């Protein structure tokens, strides 16, 4: 049967493939739309395999947060050029991937993300076929149901932060002071790049390594061992201020630590807010 322009347009709307690819698929499947969709998907996968070796260091951080702040997602979607990252098709792909993660819920995992038979791979393969660049989804972070979540997107979508708070009641969540603090802490994470939310999360081997470095620096100082140990403990304060969020100087007021900011907010609101976890995704970091 003859392929009409209306058929081609409908198939293009459904698959996102180019007009000529849609016409060819319909011609080859004698106008069977479902078979044409399968053919385009397989073609997209072939194109994806062909481009798989190309570097994908550009892209965007896609984000979603539920209105009650209990569910939030960050996804890194990579491509080859910033030009493609700014296209409507790329933006739609980000939205589609977010939707699939939310549909999967707690079942969404790293293995699920990378499963060639899962829902994300065909979406990416189809976009590769249409836009002509290699693409990848190296990682995502999803928080759900454990606390209040705030987000911050920086550098025009190149960096995203997600931070979860405990002790947040609906009344506290509505306060301007709390909303401001959430934004400030998310911006803190974006700017200062801490590794841990609290000192208790720092692995013992990481602390032992730092202490060993400090002791080596004092090796020929002639100071007694007990004095050296006190100096080592003092130097750990500087280490914590670099890698632990609550120990870092606040970007708003460097005379205060982030812990001080949280304490002041708790006192003002009569609350018991704490940071439980956070994620910081920067485009290209996973491939570096």
Describe this structure in words.
By secondary structure, the chain is α+β, with helices and mostly antiparallel strands. The chain has 3 domains: 5-51, Ubiquitin-associated (UBA) domain (Helicase, Ruva Protein, domain 3), CATH 1.10.8.10; 58-197 and 247-282, 2-Layer Sandwich (Tetrahydropterin Synthase, Chain A), CATH 3.30.479.20; 203-243, Orthogonal Bundle (GTP Cyclohydrolase I, Chain A, domain 1). It is 50% helix and 17% strand. It is built from 12 helices and 6 strands. The chain has helices spanning 5-15, 19-28, 33-51, 82-85, 88-104, 110-114, 120-131, 170-173, 176-192, 204-217, 225-243, 258-269, and strands at 58-65, 71-79, 136-144, 148-154, 159-166, 274-282. The strands form 2 sheets. A 3-stranded antiparallel sheet has the order 1-2-3. Strand 1 and strand 2 form a beta hairpin. Helix 1 crosses helix 2. The mean pLDDT is 89.
What's the order of the H and E elements? Answer: HHHEEHHHHEEEHHHHHE
Number of strands: 6
CATH superfamily of the largest domain: Elongation factor Ts, dimerisation domain
Shape: elongated
Secondary-structure blueprint:
Layout: H1 5-15, H2 19-28, H3 33-51, E1 58-65, E2 71-79, H4 82-85, H5 88-104, H6 110-114, H7 120-131, E3 136-144, E4 148-154, E5 159-166, H8 170-173, H9 176-192, H10 204-217, H11 225-243, H12 258-269, E6 274-282
